[in-house]
Specification:
Cofactor: Zn(2+)
Keywords: GTP-binding, Hydrolase, Metal-binding, Nucleotide-binding, Riboflavin biosynthesis, Zinc
CATH class of the largest domain: Alpha Beta
Oligomer: single chain
Distance between the termini: 70 Å
Pathway: Cofactor biosynthesis; riboflavin biosynthesis; 5-amino-6-(D-ribitylamino)uracil from GTP: step 1/4
EC number: 3.5.4.25
Helix content: 25-40%
CATH architecture of the largest domain: 3-Layer(aba) Sandwich
Number of domains: 2
CATH topology of the largest domain: Dihydrofolate Reductase, subunit A
Bound molecules: guanosine-5'-triphosphate, zinc ion
Catalytic activity: GTP + 4 H2O = 2,5-diamino-6-hydroxy-4-(5-phosphoribosylamino)-pyrimidine + formate + 2 phosphate + 3 H(+)
Structural class: alpha/beta
Length: 473
């Protein structure tokens, strides 16, 4: 290797919006001419030992989703963990492809593995090193980022040793919690027995309470609602401060930080003027999506005026868009339904508007657009988990459409008597047909949250579920 790696001069400094939030992205060309990336979340230089993933490029795993190795899933889950922690660095190291032997040689090694050799034997049979990776550029980038004391996301002890040899203090090594697959179990076993990689254990990376780990690195449609014991999300005049307590608010903010998009109905914006950002915990802000088929969001609302998070404004096809729109707002058009067309669309200066500031009743409007269509429109713009956050009608519509993977329903010890309804849907006439699903219970201060887990994929990812299929005796 020629010389010691000089201090990186970043040749690009830009933003990368991802399913796991917005990262700052820096680029560096090392002394051998190889280009590397550093993705930053939050301010890692101010943290004591931030989470760092030093990821070796793997085109087949990272870009093509190959299950021959675990690289793609490790990359995804590392980004999710860094995002969930609200702070950290992902170094994406080019030139590491095939443990440093390059893509074509790796594919030739795959051919030999197809004929029965393991990953170590295959490199050796090709007359190539088992592992030719160099970590000087990684260490130099960490030094340039002022992060020389880190918690390293890896199962490979050699990475820790190499970084330490290059002046980086690794205070903890955390294995990204990726499950073995039938397609890669032999490869992973060879790495563990032949290359000393860590086995799955209790010390696997988890900067989050167990409650949230099923959501990390996965894509779901989730909903959350906090309601009074008698089933209301706000008092009659629209006052919703506060139905549930501080712990439930933290929970909501954690869910936001794990979601790519947070979706609310227009009535929630009109009633509460929410920020929909992450403040009670550390974590990235999700993209905000406002469901507004009839163009009723007040133009001075926080989501339309404050650029603290990108906002998708889901408007009916015929609703006029104001001439001046803040640059953080993107209008997405919702396809018009038969009902809307019959009414001739609607306009944003509806004189019968029920803005709470004008003293009108706060009421959720039935969605004219099927929830599945809303998810399609959102999915085309932001991949990743959608959190349906309110209000009661919007969450209920997604629930009745059978589109929720999981629902967090918090019940607070307060009786409102008569107010804005929480969960309401066309139920069944008999209890035997009532909606039941496997569930977990969480106690948030004085509030109790039931997490209903509806989809098979969500159930498979969630430990500790109680069977919800039969009534509790
Ligand atoms: N030569 C060779 N390289 C492989 C093979 N499978 C994956 N790779 C490469 O191995 C590199 C990743 O190394 P791994 O040993 O899987 O994992 P690691 O990066 O050392 O450790 P972690 O930090 O836990 O991911 C990537 O660059 C892959 O392209 C293989 O069968 N042969
Ligand atoms: Zn790989």
């Amino acid at each position: 290797m020629p010389g010691r790696e000089p201090t990186p001069v970043w040749s690009a400094d830009t933003i990368l919006p991802t399913a796991h939030g917005r990262f700052r992205m820096l680029a560096h060309t090392d002394r051998t001419g190889v280009e590397h990336l550093a993705l930053l979340m939050g301010n890692p230089e101010t943290a004591d030992a931030p989470l760092v993933r030093v990821h070796s490029e793997c085109l087949t795993g990272d870009a093509l989703g190959s299950y021959r190795c675990d690289c793609g899933e490790q990359l995804d889950i590392s980004m999710a963990h860094i995002a969930a922690a609200g702070c950290g660095i992902l170094l994406y190291l080019r030139g590491h492809e095939g443990r440093g032997i390059g893509l074509l040689n790796k594919l030739r090694a795959y051919e030999l593995q197809d004929r029965g050799l393991d990953t170590v034997e295959a490199n050796a049979a090709l007359g190539l090193p088992i592992d030719a990776r160099d970590y000087q550029a990684a260490a130099a980038m960490l030094r340039a980022l002022d992060c020389t004391r880190i918690r390293l996301l890896t199962a490979n002890p050699l990475k820790q040793i190499e970084l330490e040899a290059n002046g980086i203090e690794v205070v903890d090594r955390l294995r990204p919690p990726v499950a073995d697959r039938p397609e890669n179990s032999h490869y992973l076993e060879t790495k563990r027995s032949g290359m000393n990689h860590d086995r799955p254990s209790d010390s696997d990376a988890s900067p989050l309470p167990d409650l949230y780990t099923p959501l990390v690195g996965r894509t779901e449609v989730i909903a959350q609602l906090a309601q009074s014991t008698d089933g209301f999300i706000a008092a009659n005049g629209g006052d919703a401060e506060f139905v549930s307590g501080a712990a439930d608010r933290e929970h909501l903010h954690r869910l936001r930080s794990l979601a790519a998009v947070v979706l609310v109905g227009v009535s929630t914006v009109r009633a509460d003027d929410p920020k929909l950002t992450v403040r009670a915990v550390q974590g990235p802000n999700p993209v905000r999506a406002i469901l507004d088929p009839h163009g009723r969001v007040p133009l001075d609302s926080h989501v339309l005026t404050q650029p603290d998070a990108p906002t998708l404004w889901l408007l009916g096809e015929r609703i006029p868009v104001p001439e001046s729109l803040a640059s953080h707002v993107t209008v997405l058009r919702l396809p018009e339904t038969a009902g809307q067309a019959a009414r001739g669309g609607s306009s944003r200066d509806d004189p019968a508007g029920d803005h709470p500031a004008r003293g009108g009743a706060v009421e959720e409007h039935c969605l004219d657009v099927p929830p599945a269509v809303i998810l399609q429109v959102l999915g085309r713009h932001v991949p990743g988990t959608v959190l349906v956050e309110g209000g009661g009608r919007t969450v209920s519509e997604f629930l009745s459409a059978g589109l929720l993977d999981r629902l967090f329903l918090t019940v607070a010890p307060v009786l409102i008597g008569n107010g804005v309804p929480g969960l309401r849907f066309t139920g069944s006439d008999v209890m035997a047909e009532a909606l039941r699903a496997p569930f977990r219970r969480h106690v948030f201060g004085a509030d109790v949250c039931t997490e209903f887990v509806f989809s098979a994929a969500a159930r498979a990812a969630t430990p500790g579920l109680s069977d919800g299929s039969t009534p509790l005796s």
